[in-house]
């Protein structure tokens, strides 16, 4: 049976999907701005962050209103709770993209330290993780969600490796310190974005199965 | 004027902060934590029930926990009241009814067994109805009546039980000064609590409630729900309700029925958070039919 307020849930779901797409676009553009040394694109990324902030508030408002007036239970209750959490994660992804874009602007004023290899690799994994997390939301595929959580280790490993590499750069050639630090922070931002993708994946498992898989190390291995 | 709280003009020097005070946090123990149940009180096995030729219950299997509240939910006509009435053999009073298959055991004893006295059974398994039905007698007599037919004629003892039952039903304070006025003069909510007092006066083990709040306003409903929460310390309660929120608030376990069949039975929090059956989900979300 259809209910007269079912459209509210449909709208809520599409807002969350839109937010996911927007966040993914922001990661891609922030990275493109960095690699292509495209200051104009970086500025657009910084400006577009408002969109994610606005969507997060809208989603919160819709969720609170729905819980307040429609007294949801079961899947619907999980949907609004998860929607609020995931939108918060996506908003934080947006914040990381803003810092990456700002660093891209500063780095654009200096000669490149080294060719970009690891950072785009990390970014691609993080983007894939985000996209798959949003697909889990669409299709409720919990196996895929677990795979996302496991992939986080890959990103962590590249981040650590970059950290070591950039540290030795700074020690050997102190003149590179500013640029190396910028890259270190960008790497850290990407690592955080992957963490948010994991959070979203975990939230989608809760949505599909009402199971809390957070902080369960055994799930993240193999 | 804007006050800048970041620069404190009154303290020119940073003082060494005192050791941070440790917080004393009192976490109240959750009221949802219950002492462990002593286990199954009522065991319903493969129950088929008929009104004449019409089958109303189909192969119902259900174990009801002792000193817990179990809610029966489901659309009208799904058999909730029928099953409830099976539990104290109230259906015996309707012509042509029959348990054709299966059994209901209370503490292991089949209540449809040859040597079970249905009248005795109904004292152990009391019932509160949708429409409050006090006798057209005084508040006092509404409770004392049942005790007298049981042979209790000691005035002091009767007074004691009447007071205890009214207190148990959270009605004492409201009626203690007018015990000898008619029970019919009470408000709907008070009448329902009077019926609950009457039921608990004979010290049953089980209280069956068939939509006990459906004729009550929200405040009276809240009082009955409060009461249910108190009563489960002493009694096993089975409540039929059409209010999903009432089932969620009051019960420990919930059974969902549809067309005479038990569809799903689980902890109430599971039924309302993550039911396994799509029909249950549709019903509790109000999108059934
Ligand atoms: N006294 C009766 N005689 C014949 N059929 C009855 C009687 N009481 C209930 N029924 C039938 O049994 C089925 C279950 O009814 P009931 O237990 O009252 O449902 P619920 O309490 O879930 O609304 C319904 O189809 C109803 O018509
Ligand atoms: Mg009924």
Q: In words, what does this structure look like?
A:
- The complex is a heterodimer of chains A (222) and B (289).
- Chain A contains seven helices and no strands.
- Chain A is mainly alpha-helical and 222 residues long.
- Chain A has one domain (6-221): Up-down Bundle (Methane Monooxygenase Hydroxylase, Chain G, domain 1), CATH 1.20.58.220.
- Chain B is of the alpha/beta class.
- Chain B has helices at 80-86, 118-124, 139-149, 155-168, 172-175, 188-201, 218-231, 244-250, 268-273, 278-284, and strands at 40-51, 54-65, 69-73, 97-106, 109-110, 125-128, 206-210, 236-240, 253-258, 261-267.
- In chain B, helix 6 (188-201) packs parallel to helix 7 (218-231).
- The N and C termini of chain B lie far apart (61 Å).
- The A-B interface holds A 1-3, 6, 71-78, 209-210 and B 244-245, 248, 272-275, 281-282, 284-289.
- The structure holds adenosine-5'-diphosphate and magnesium ion.
- Magnesium ion binds at residues 80-81, 210, 240 of chain B.
What's the topology here?
The complex is a heterodimer of chains A (222) and B (289).
Chain A: H1 6-35, H2 39-70, H3 74-108, H4 118-139, H5 142-172, H6 177-209, H7 217-220
Chain B: E1 40-51, E2 54-65, E3 69-73, H1 80-86, E4 97-106, E5 109-110, H2 118-124, E6 125-128, H3 139-149, H4 155-168, H5 172-175, H6 188-201, E7 206-210, H7 218-231, E8 236-240, H8 244-250, E9 253-258, E10 261-267, H9 268-273, H10 278-284
Parallel strand pairs in B: 3-8, 3-9, 6-7, 7-8
Antiparallel strand pairs in B: 1-2, 1-4, 4-5, 9-10
Bound molecules: adenosine-5'-diphosphate and magnesium ion.
Adenosine-5'-diphosphate is lined by residues 51, 54, 56, 74, 76-82, 94 of chain B.
């Amino acid at each position: 049976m259809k209910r007269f307020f079912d459209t509210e849930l449909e709208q809520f779901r599409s807002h969350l999907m839109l937010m996911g797409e927007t966040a993914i676009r922001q990661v891609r553009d922030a990275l493109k701005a960095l690699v292509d040394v495209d200051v104009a694109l970086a500025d657009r990324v910084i400006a577009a962050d408002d969109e994610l902030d606005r969507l997060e508030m809208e989603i919160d408002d819709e969720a609170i209103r729905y819980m307040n007036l429609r007294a949801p239970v079961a899947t619907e209750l999980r949907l609004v709770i998860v929607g609020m959490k995931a939108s918060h994660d996506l908003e934080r992804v947006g914040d990381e993209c803003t810092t990456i874009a700002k660093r891209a602007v500063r780095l654009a004023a200096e000669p490149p330290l080294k060719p970009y290899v690891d950072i785009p690799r990390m970014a691609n994994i993080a983007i894939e993780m985000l996209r798959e997390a949003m697909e889990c939301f669409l299709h409720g595929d919990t196996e895929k969600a677990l795979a996302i959580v496991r992939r986080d280790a890959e990103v962590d490993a590249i981040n650590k490796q970059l950290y070591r590499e950039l540290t030795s750069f700074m020690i050997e050639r102190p003149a590179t310190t500013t640029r190396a630090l910028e890259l270190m922070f960008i790497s850290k931002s990407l690592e955080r974005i992957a963490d948010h993708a994991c959070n979203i994946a975990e939230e989608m498992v809760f949505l599909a199965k009402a199971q809390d898989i957070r902080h369960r190390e055994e799930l993240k291995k193999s | 004027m804007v006050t800048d709280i970041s620069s404190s003009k009154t303290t020119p020097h940073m003082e060494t902060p005192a050791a941070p005070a440790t917080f004393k946090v009192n976490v109240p123990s959750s009221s949802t934590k219950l002492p462990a149940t002593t286990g199954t009180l009522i065991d319903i096995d493969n129950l088929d029930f008929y009104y004449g030729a019409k089958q109303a219950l189909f192969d119902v299997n259900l174990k009801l926990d002792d000193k817990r509240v179990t809610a029966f939910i489901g659309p009208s006509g799904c058999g909730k009241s029928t099953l409830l009435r099976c539990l104290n053999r109230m259906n015996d009073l309707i012509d042509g009814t029959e348990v054709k298959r299966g059994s209901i055991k209370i503490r292991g004893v089949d209540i449809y067994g040859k040597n079970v006295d249905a009248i005795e059974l109904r004292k152990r398994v009391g019932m509160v109805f949708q429409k409050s039905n006090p006798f057209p007698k005084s508040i006092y007599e509404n409770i004392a009546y049942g005790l007298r037919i049981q042979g209790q004629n000691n005035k002091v003892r009767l007074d004691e039980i009447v007071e205890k039952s009214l207190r148990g039903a959270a009605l004492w304070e409201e009626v203690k000064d007018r015990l000898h006025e008619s029970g019919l003069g009470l408000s709907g909510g008070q009448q329902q609590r009077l019926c609950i007092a009457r039921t608990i006066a004979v010290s049953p083990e089980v209280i069956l409630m068939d939509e006990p709040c459906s004729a009550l306003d929200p405040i009276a409903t809240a009082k009955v729900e409060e009461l249910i929460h108190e009563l489960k310390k002493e009694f096993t309660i089975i409540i039929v309700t059409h209010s999903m929120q009432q089932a969620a608030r009051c019960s420990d376990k919930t059974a969902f029925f549809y067309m005479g069949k038990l569809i799903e039975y689980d902890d109430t929090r599971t039924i309302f958070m993550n039911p396994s059956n799509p029909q249950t989900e549709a019903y509790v979300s109000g999108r059934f039919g």
